[in-house]
Amino acid sequence: MDNLTLGRHISGQFNAELESIRNQVMVMGGLVEEQLNSSLEVLSSQDLEAARRIIDTDKSVNSMEVAIDESCTRIIAKRQPAASDLRLVMAIIKTITDLERIGDVAERIARTVIENQNKKTPPLVSLENFGRHTVRMLHDVLDAFARMDVDAAVKVYQEDVKVDREYESIIRELMTYMMEDPRSIPQVLNVLWCARALERVGDRCQNISEYIIYFVKGKDIRHINHDELEKLLAQS
User: By the 8 A CB rule, do 36 and 105 touch?
Assistant: First the structure.
C-alpha cells in the first residue's frame, strides 16, 4: 500500500469515526427529547409509574454522555484533529454536556411529581405550554445539529428571547397565585422550580445552536452583539 493510498485509508477511517460519534449524539438527543416530553405529560397526568421510567431513563442518558465523551477523547489523542475536525469534536463534547443537563431537568420534574403526589398544585396550563415550547426548541436544534444548518441554528438562537418572556409571564402568574392563597406557597415553589428548569432548557438549546455556528463558521458567538452576528452570518 503506497503512502497516498494509506493516507486515504486513514482519512476514511477518521471520517467514519466522526460520523459514528455524530450518530451517537443524535440517538442521545432523541432520548433526551423523549424524556423531556414525557416529563411534561407526567406533570399533567400525575402518572407515577411513567415518572419512575423517566428517572430510570436518565441513567441511560448519563451512560451515553460518558461513552461519547470517551470516544471524543480517544479521537483527540489518536488523530490529533485540526481545523474543522477539531471544531466538530469540541462542538460534540459541549453538546452532549448540555443534552445531559436537559435530561437532568426531565428527571427532576419526574421526581417533583412523585414527591408531591396527592398535593394541590397551581393550574399548570401555562407551564405545560411553556414546556412544549422548549421541547420544540430542542427538536429544532437537534435537527439543525444533524444537518449542521446555520440558518436553522440561528432561528433557535433567537427563539430563546421568546422563552425568556414566557418564563417571566409564568413567574408573575405564580406570584399572584401565592398572594391570593398563602397556603399554596410550598407547592408553588415546586412549580417555580420546574419553570426555572425549563427556562434553562431554552438556554441550553441556545448553547447548542452556538456550537453549530462555531463549527460551520469557526467563530465563537457567545459574547458578540446582534450586528456582529449578522455580519458573521453574511460571510460566505
Answer: yes
Q: Which residue has the cell 424524556?
A: 35
Beta-carbon neighbour count of residue 19 at 10 Å?
10
Q: Is the pLDDT of residue 4 over 50?
A: no
Question: Under CATH, which number does the domain 3-234 receive?
Answer: 1.20.58.220
What pTM, to 2 d.p., does this model score? Answer: 0.88
Largest separation between any pair of C-alpha atoms in the chain: 80
Q: Cβ distance 195 to 127 under 8 Å?
A: yes
d(CA 44, CA 125): 9
CA 226 to chain centre: 23
Domain locations in the chain? 3-234
Amino acid of residue 176: T
What is the chain's length?
A: 236
Q: Which cell is 73 given? A: 477523547
Cβ atoms of residues 216 and 148 within 8 Å: yes
